[in-house]
Design brief:
The protein is 69% helix and 0% strand. It is elongated and about 60 Å long. The chain is built from 8 helices and no strands. The chain folds into 2 domains: 66 residues, Tetracycline Repressor, domain 2 (Orthogonal Bundle); 121 residues, Orthogonal Bundle (Tetracycline Repressor, domain 2).
Length: 205
């Protein structure tokens, strides 16, 4: 997982010098550990515990992420980028219907990470210390790309608004809790996919 420290060039924000490879590895390790930690508990995760699990000192963590808000913002941005970019990648490897179902699993994983960061995100968005991302718009655009591909192949309905699918998925995620078995969430997502299939006899061919 990666997220831009200051730009896609890998240069440090303060000095403009290229970020050393070991510094990039530390940053990536911190983000990976934070992702797992936030996805596994709704409680506030201590930053020193994240640093310890990542195998770095707390000073190293603070050099990359001076505040909890900075860490949460970077992780959220990286996760959102991965969810959105996974749609075309999945379509390149899978039929649209299968790509949609696999993408839903990735979106569900993103939502679990977001759930663990929700208190910090809400406070940061309200105060302006965390930039407000265009999450709904980007998620809906990814869904639209998959639906368009499915409509062309006849494997998915052509009369569905992508925004409606976004709302259905949010309903599934908000109705379940971190303690629900993944199988339960999977069953609900299967029902969403069933609703998006064209009626029997109307598929191409």
């Amino acid at each position: 997982m990666s997220a831009p420290e200051s730009s896609a060039t890998g240069r440090g924000a303060a000095s403009g010098r290229p970020v050393r490879a070991d510094a990039r590895r530390n940053r990536d390790r911190i983000l990976a550990v934070a992702r797992t930690a936030f996805a596994s508990t709704p409680e506030t995760v201590p930053l020193d515990a994240i640093a310890r699990e990542a195998g770095v000192g707390i000073g190293t963590l603070y050099r990359h992420f001076p505040t909890r808000e900075a860490l949460v913002e970077a992780l959220y941005a990286a996760e959102l980028d991965e969810v959105v970019s996974s749609a075309p990648a999945l379509l390149a490897d899978l039929p649209p219907e299968a790509a949609l179902r696999a993408w839903m699993d990735r979106y569900a994983a993103f939502f679990e990470v977001k759930r663990g960061m929700s208190a910090t995100l809400r406070a940061g968005w309200a105060s302006g210390s965390i930039a407000t991302p265009a999450t709904r718009e980007r998620i809906t655009a990814a869904i639209a790309e998959i639906l368009d591909s499915g409509a062309r192949s006849g494997s998915l309905r052509a009369d569905i608004e992508p925004e409606d699918v976004t709302l259905m998925l949010l309903g599934v995620f908000l109705a379940t809790t971190a303690g629900d078995a993944p199988q339960r969430v999977g069953q609900l997502l299967d029902l969403v996919v069933d609703a998006l299939r064209p009626p029997a006899g109307s598929r191409n061919g």
